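2 proteins. here.
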Amino acid sequence: MGHRVRVLVGLWALAEVVVLVLVASWIGVGWTVLATLATTALGWVLLARQGTRALAELRERARERRAPGRALGDAGLIAVGGLLMVLPGFLGDVVGLLCLLPPTRFLVRGLLGRTVAARLPVALRGPVRVRSARAEGPLGGPFGSGAHASGFGRPLVIEGEVVRDEPVRDDRP
């Protein structure tokens, strides 16, 4: 896992350098530096504004003893978006803006949710819908003649079928 992260970070840094060189050749070095500084300043402003809102919402939920839910995820996305905006580079600025702006934050949240859910083991994934049908068998009635609340007698058998919407994948290496 660590090797993949290092490769991904290295490729991201290389892409940032390539984009900076392309932008500098297009608009000039001075304008590129100015644009980089402007996006950094914009990142600080957006981080301060959105971060304050997110922390206020988290405080409000804690005061009312409600689960943090999506507010905690939004605070994390705002922190990551602010970091990406503050670091130099135009690719990070685009991704940072997607994380910082409320109208586009749901896109990033949905993409991350699907990515994390796909990497979870099958047993830990979302709810499974179960379809069942009542069948009266030789026990006579839904609970059978020998089944008691005390648990003595013949065992209670419930037949059912587990239905999944997506196919089960085995992601083991």
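next one coming up
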Amino acid sequence: MCVKNVGRMDAYVRISAGLMMVSLGIMKHKGWMAALGSMKVAEGITRYCPVLDALNLSTLSDEELLDEALGSCVIDIEEDDDDEFEELEHQCGCHHED
């Protein structure tokens, strides 16, 4: 399974540049440019780049790496007046034990 290795901003740039390459390739009858552009659009949408993967690199920010590591499990902590943790509520529905 492919793991995301393209950051959010990088993905937006890849999609925009890819769409521009596709349109220029179509206008100038350059099939190779349209093909490269479509690859960049696909990389931006899937947020996976095989070249970055082969070089063992990533453009994910620290926050995005943390989100990937933790998955969708987010803990909301409600505190009572004694500053002790009263309840741990998970948005993803999982249950963690201490």
